[in-house]
Amino acid sequence: MASQNPGGGGGGGGYYGWGPPPQHPQQHAQYTPTRNIHHAHHYGHGHGQPPAQQMGPDLPTVLLALTDTYITAAHASGYKTSLGTASDAEAYYKLVATGLACLETALQYRLQPRVESIVRLRYASILYEETENLDEAEEALNKGLQLATRNNLMELKCSMQYLLVKITFKTNHKAALLMLNSFIQDVETLDIPLWTYSFRFLRFHLLAEAGPTHDDQAATNALRSIYSMSKDRMDVQVIALASLMEAMISLRGGADGVENAQRALARVFTQQNGGLDIPPQLEVLTQLLDICCSLMLSRAQECDPKLRKLHTSLDQPGRWLNWKEDGEFSVDVHPGRPGRPPEGLKLRWLNKDDVFTVGYFLSGHVKFQKNVEENGKAERFLTEGLKTVDRITAGFTQMSVEASKSKLAWKRSLKSYMYLYYAFLLCMRTDWDSALKIFKQLEEVAVPLALLPNSPLALHITYLRAIINHGTNDLYQAVQAYTEVVSNTPVDSELSIISKLNQILILRPQNPSEADALLTSIERYCPQHKNELLKAAYIAVKATARGELVKTKNYLSLALRHAAAAGNVQLTFIVLNFMCHRFFSGVVSEQAEKSAKAAWQNAKKGRDTLWTLMGGQMYADCLARKGNDLEAIRQQQMNEEASLQVIKNLTRNLPPPPPYQEVMQQQ
After folding, report:
1. 530-562 pLDDT, tens per residue?
2. What is the pTM of this model?
3. Which of 361, 566, 590, 596 could cross-link to 298 by cystine, CB 3.0-4.6 Å?
4. CATH of 568-667, one of 3.30.300, 1.10.287, 3.40.50, 1.25.40
């Protein structure tokens, strides 16, 4: 979520929310090798010299209008340019250079202080957004700041200070933060609440974004200072915004951060229950974050009612009446002095298509564990999300090249995550052919993102590759991929723990000592873990180790309870199969028959061919031992289909047999 400059000049602030990067100055690119625009002076005058010929008193106004025309024309082709050729980039930057030349020419005239300040701010904004000429942008701002200070143009002065911090942060993080602290003190002393909020949100953004200054705790403290101020001033919408930002920062910590996130969300719910209005964008963000909290704890029963509430909310036509295409909205702030008109903190978040895309993605998550039970509902949600994400380009109508690239990267990231979880769904129901196909599509989509090996998406893609290798019996490659994930993640991260659990299952038969060492390395993190699914998986792996019968039975019962609490059908039928094998192998009894039948039926319901075959085979053996030969034969026939699929899958990575002639020659 981007905070825009309240003064209207100087572009936006930071990227605060879960959504596409803001459509405002962020990075700067050129089509020339030096990435510096050489401004074309179409009016034939040098820098700083007034025109020799009088061109009319309204020429500066005309030049400002021309600037807007050229920049608007450039931004209309911003998305096309971000995907296009060098000639497209050349045409784009010629328009930008011409717009800058118009501003330079306007500055050669004697302008009113306010107009000159606006021109300098606009000039620096374009340089910041479209070029790497940061020194020239800083020089223009410093001149503008002197002018605005002499003439008491406080709004423009703050706008220029806001942009100056962002420019300085590009090259000197520490200096930018010190400068920002000084500006915050100034506006606090002058009692300008709108700019106090704006500067403090900018400080939060600079501390929260990835980089040398990244510090989640300091970012959270910045938000709490905003919350404290807004609470004292009864700026209820700012209270909600700060609380939501704190919830998002907390969720970065995974399941351990959910409790803090829920406390922050509780403040927003209290406001809503008290009848206080917040912008619809913040309402939707509240619902999305609330669902994320339940998902991160694997509390399936909590998710469904929250998802229904979200769907009802998004289906209300009135919600979208004032929702702008560029995602901009305003958060109300009480004026600094009584009698003044109300003020608003401008922000930019998701547009309608973006919101629906994220909604489909989260819906697929919520229905993940019930995908088979609900006839592929999770897959249908993700399929709709993939269709919607391809429509996002329609919102790129007015955007700079760099902003277009940022939003395109966000779109590709979201699309990659959709393919990722779609492939996981296919793996759960052992449709390995389709999973491999989706995995290839995922790799193609992710290539332009140039992911670092330790980035979250890259690690999840590696983990998916490990799962597919594991499920298709390429165990050596699976162990290598799991090891790669573990080596690039913290030892207590969920991805590291689940990768080790999978490695243990592979290593146990042939290298039990290494498997035991891996299990020991995660035992301090798993028993009290807040993620029910992870805890259930750990207990199941521990239960399947050879040990005392009573302990095994207790572990398996505990694993079943956690799996049921998390709604994990797959883990349930795996545990049921192991229980039948462990306790009833070779036993002739009614309980043994019921156990085998339950294992087979649950696996079949989960559409898992491997465990369906295992359960079906145990059930057929049990029937044969009881003398029910006819039923045993019928069950064996039912097992044949699953057997063919399992054999085909487990032998797909084996080398092909030698030709018949070659075998005969060897003999």
Report:
1. 998 999 999 999 988 877 888 888 888 998 888
2. 0.86
3. 566
4. 1.25.40
